[in-house]
Design brief:
nine-stranded mixed β-sheet; 2 domains; globular
């Protein structure tokens, strides 16, 4: 069994994502500050997520976002991209068993995961900062 850790939202967790239809970023004029909703279908999650756009690239369709609660999507207009791929995913790791190890696939549980299911991902960045252990994960899968 691999090491386990927990991603905390002590600092804003963010991810780079690409809608299944990347052309929507340009077509709809998605920009910084917009709200995007959809589900991370690549990892196999059946639940919709609400994400605040930090930056948007109309050429590649890559959106850098951080997760916001589902209530935000009920209070303001949003762009429903329906499904998207998740690229790097970053957050602050709260250690449960063992610390994250660079270059390994490890189990984790994103904070506020409404399904409360274990995920796995490849750890490709670890920084020890004053606020905690900052990690970047790729190839996320839900077990």
């Amino acid at each position: 069994m691999t090491s386990s850790f927990f991603l905390s939202r002590v600092s804003p967790q963010h991810a780079n994502l690409v809608p299944f239809r990347a052309d929507l970023v340009e077509l709809w004029g998605i920009k910084k500050g917009d709200l995007v909703i959809g589900r991370p279908a690549g990892p196999g999650c059946p639940l919709y997520h609400a994400l605040r756009v930090l930056s948007a690239n109309p050429v590649t369709g890559v959106l850098e976002c951080h997760t916001v609660g589902p209530m935000v999507a009920r209070k303001e207009d949003s762009h429903d991209v329906q499904a998207y791929h998740v690229h790097p995913f970053e957050g602050v790791a709260s250690i449960i068993k063992n610390p994250p190890i660079l270059g390994t696939r490890q189990y984790f549980l994103p904070s506020n995961c409404m399904m409360d299911l274990a995920h796995t991902a490849l750890v490709n960045m670890i920084f020890h900062k004053p606020f905690g252990t900052h990690v970047r994960l790729e190839d996320i899968r839900i077990l």
